[in-house]
Amino acid sequence: MSDKVVYENPLNTRYASREMQKNFGDEKRFRLWRKLWIALAEAEMELGLPITRAQIDEMKAHEGDIDYEKAEVYERQVRHDVMAHVKTFGEAAPSAMPIIHLGATSCFVDCNSELMIMRDGLDIILKKLVNVMEKLKNFALRYSNMPTLGFTHLQPAQLTTVGKRATLWLQDLMMDYESLQNLYSHFKLRGVKGTTGTQASFYELFDGDGDKVKELEKRVVAKLGYVKVYGVTGQTYSRKFDYNVLCVLSQIAQSAYKFSNDIRILQNMKEIEEPFEKSQIGSSAMAYKRNPMRSERMGSLARYMLSLPINSAVTASTQWFERTLDDSANRRIVNAQAFLTVDAILNIYMNVAENLVVYDKVIAKHIAQELPFMATENIMMECVKAGGNRQELHEKIRVLSMEAGKKVKQEGKENNLIELIKADEAFSAVHGKLDEILDAKKFIGRAPKQTEEFIANEIMPILERHKDLLGETGDVKI
Q1: If you ran DSSP here, which 8-state letter would residue 470 be given?
Q2: CA neighbours within 13 Å on the CB side: how many for 2?
Q3: CB atoms < 10 A from the CB of 300, how many?
Q4: pLDDT score of 90
Q5: Residue 384 parent element (H or E)
Q6: Which of 136, 137, 257, 271 is surrounded by the most beta carbons within 10 Å?
Q7: Closest to 370 in 3D by CA, of 414, 327, 412, 336
Q8: Are 384 and 308 in contact (CB under 8 A)?
Q9: Catalytic residues
Q10: Does the pLDDT at position 284 exceed 50?
Q11: Which helix (H) or strand (E) holds 447?
């Protein structure tokens, strides 16, 4: 049971998935430290340092049994988390105590483990991102032919389709996916670099044999399942990489924010709603309300995420020379919370995208209110084809449009422009064609085809590439 007396981070208690929480948990971090120490000692042994197989075996035998209470006692004594865990590991594997962390600096375990944790975090983000894309793809295809009012400046504009609008949300996510792939392509571990990045301690251990030092780094990284390492570092890997990661996470949050705002507006218009559960309460006072709480939560979390890259930018730009420690406390908070935040956003995004409710009759009603104005050019041209005077028709339809607009805006009545046109003999040539002219599907251009082509050409290759990740559903915890 949680402790209600002290503050608990809502990202853990309310929003982020257990999967992402465990990814940034101490259990994983400290196990990675031990894995790194074992890889280092084993590679040093293989390259001729006086380390025995028995020492390695003892380290491996105790890799997972971490005495956290003992580590906390040591940390209070030495004020150094890495050395506290070196001592704790050494007591569990006493024969290996003299060679644990041999030649390394704290950032050997700290930086490399942080990079591996972020890499695994990106895998979780990727999985959820492509699942959101899959759900939006299904929605876009289902409604690719359904006309709806387009909006520019939040004012009614030419028609589009419900599905075509969804491709705009999809395209934003596709751009985020591409940014994420770019991160993957440039991902590297810090490697085995020593105190200021010069590898001097390892150079000394191997009696000046630089080839063995390079081979050591290569072997350690391979034992951890990686290939690429930074060619140069200070004591830490460049904090610009953290900034790059947070920028990509921010891009995903931006896309989700835009989607959530669109859904909130559409829900206000009663055209499309996010899911609303049978027993859900929209307002403590107004029992009839169906508030878009999921979309609002997405926007709220996204706003927080958008604020984080600047923090990381300041950290990257204030690292003096080979490093300063003012990054440490900051990064413990910022990096993890960025991932937890976007994880929570994507959980909600999946849930909303999979369960959107479309009210086609309301959409059709809104089209009917605006389409007569949009159709005036088509009506006028049909009359001109039948022998009418374009200039005279233009003036007549302008006057009738003003009259109908007054009905709508000043009197709060329905748009009666079509009735006015039907009553005017100047437009007799189209009186029998108005239903055909006012067919909303004649005003959506290539929107259905654009939707199909975009999904076939740009989205499906991504989903096919990651088909093993599909099938997730979004969980809104509270």
Answers
A1: -
A2: 10
A3: 14
A4: 95
A5: helix 376-385
A6: 136
A7: 414
A8: no
A9: 153, 283
A10: no
A11: helix 447-454
Dihedral over alpha carbons 432, 434, 439, 443 (to 10 degrees): 130
233-247 pLDDT per residue, tens: 999 999 999 999 999
d(CA 269, CA 439): 22
Cα separation values, 414 from 135, 369, 460, 473, Å: 37, 7, 43, 42
Helix (H, G, I), strand (E, B) or coil at 477: coil
**In this predicted model, what pLDDT tens digit does every residue of 430-466 receive, in sequence order?**
888 888 888 999 999 999 999 999 999 999 999 999 9
Transcribe 390-430 into DSSP letters. Answer: HHHHHHHHHHHHHHHHHHHHTS-PPP-HHHHHHT-GGGGGG
pLDDT digits (tens, 9 = 90+) for 19-62: 999 999 999 999 999 999 999 999 999 999 999 999 999 999 99
Residue whose token pair is 């590991």: 89
For the residues 312-341, what does the mean pLDDT come to?
95
What are residue 200's DSSP bridge partners? none
| Strand-strand pairing, 155-161 and 272-273 | unpaired
As a whole-number percent, the residues of the chain with pLDDT over 90 amount to 79
DSSP string across 257-302: HHHHHHHHHHHHTTSEE----TT--S-SS-TT----HHHHHHHHHH
Q: Is 210 exposed, middle or buried (0-12, 13-18, 19+ CB in 10 A)?
A: exposed
Phi-psi sector, 108: left (phi>0), alpha (psi -120 to 50), beta: alpha
